Amino acid sequence: MKRIMSGQSCSHGPSKTKVLVALLAIALVASFAAWGCSPKAANDDAKAPEKKAESAASEKAGDGVDELAAYSGFPTEGRFIDNVAALPGFYKNTEKNESNAKAEAPRRYTDRNGNLVQPVPTDELGWNNTYLDADNRGCTSCHTLENALMSLPTYHRLIFFGYPTEQGYQNCIACHSDSYSGHKLADAIHTLHMNSTMFLNDDGNCQSCHYINPDTGVFDRWDEVKYDLYKGITDVKADELKASVSYDQTTVTPAENRIFKTVKDEPSQWLTDDSKQDKSIYENWVVSIDGDCENPVEMTLPEMEQQFGTVKQVMKMDCTINGVGQATIMQSEVEGIPLKAIIDYAKPKAGANVVSPIGSDGYDYAQMGIDWLLENDALIVTKMDGELLPNSQGYPCMIWVNKTSGGNFTKRISNLTFMTLPEDEIDSQLYVGQFTDDRTGEIYSKPNSGVLNYPTGIVLSGEEAKTVHLEGFADAWDEPIKKMEFSFDHGETWTVVDTPDNNADNWTYWRMDFTPPAAGAYLLDIRTTSITPDGADRVCQYDTQFMFTVEQGVR
Fold first, then answer.
1. Inter-helix orientation angle 39-47/49-60, to 10°
2. Is the Cβ–Cβ distance between 543 and 501 less than 8 Å?
3. ω into residue 119 within 30 of 0, thus cis?
4. DSSP H helical segments within 376-453, as ranges?
5. What is the pLDDT averaged over residues 43-57?
6. Residue 185 CA: distances (Å) to CA of 4, 188, 189, 314
7. What H or E segment, with its residue span, contains residue 523?
8. Which terminus of the chain is more exposed, N or C, with fewer CB under 10 A?
9. CATH C-level class of 238-251+444-550
10. Please, which residues have CB within 8 angstroms of residue 351's CB and are 6 or more apart in sequence?
11. What does the domain layout of the chain look like in residue ranges?
12. Is the per-residue pLDDT at 36 higher than 60?
């Protein structure tokens, strides 16, 4: 399979070093073929039974090539013990280990943001690639998530990160769940891959995406277990950690790091070039206030600002599907028309309890209770960081609401429609980032945390390696963060950072300065706790995991 990711090559073909492993794993390969993970091999077996029988008979007769002996250099005939004395002459442990480690060194590449990345740690035996085939496993070993989505035969919405974090399958879990769409991720992934000529021609199989747990037989997602399998990661206990952590709730996202999601229109209709903004669109944009209200009206944005006034406030946007460790989140100073003033003017009819902001592309999924909007300072935003709303952020206007998720942040609002819904249906229409994990039955990524200034796998050298500076977030949509915990020894010991007086209106932005004791790979685990409405602790069921490598420059 050709790698779509720039600077990477995807080759699952056998190397000389892996011949021995392949020979020793014949039984495992045969078991895969039995249930369809190696369809090509299964077909070949079916086509030529006579040939295989002849080959087997020949080898039994001693006429076949002893491939294992040819590879190892050690004869297989006679008693092995009789040939042990010959070992020092050709079998040199140190040289063999060093040679294999060099031959199977993890690949490096420069990502789209110019970062040098090495997703798999280096180890002295070359274990990670020789025996785990780690460079060829996991979603982003062969493609980026964005390119994979764009290659689908039907439209799929696209979310573009502003921060350099690499998008992963974690952003797919929420939507592809029973609690949301009902479209199982496994169904789509398995069908698309096992029917892909590109995947099969590159020797892709079940273990390209999964790890077969030897204790349970469960097909775990590779990306969820890989850091427990890798060799070469340096552990640092909490009481030996040379690191400092600080946090605030006021940091705003730089313009170049803002996320955005595509609308439903064709790409030619997207407004994504923020350098070319047509002010006449803002001046002439009409919003219809309609539905179950006493004073329906159509007004331009300038007229609405004059009629209802504007307010400024720092607000976060945490996407509905922000997966574990992902970066579909940002915070900005926004200015806009308070929805409270609009509601007071429109005068909802008796029983009307919902406002639906509808986008010009027909997006109408956000149906929020009037009480919720009033309680959470909803704005029709027209400016961000003192400038007109950027094209990529929904110019000329979009709705922002505290303590809710980005699914409610409708872009390019054309209608504010008042509605009357049964009271028991109102909460079900509200996006607050609470999607159930089909595997565990728990809320998937609430609370959440992530590293924002580097992609996982970053290689740092020089001054950046002496003191590693990491920045990231913790957030739980409508729940305040109680504490963050950081571990550098696979979760054995933790450094606890309490966050008293935390509010849910803004994200918790943390900064860490870490002095690595030596060159090598390190794994940062982050565990986050929020406070539920009833006062209980909610701990994310999955730790955020971030690996990085430091080399020249370490103190």
1. 80
2. no
3. no
4. 423-426
5. 42
6. 21, 5, 6, 35
7. strand 520-531
8. C
9. mainly beta
10. 292, 420
11. 16-47+92-229, 238-251+444-550, 262-429
12. no
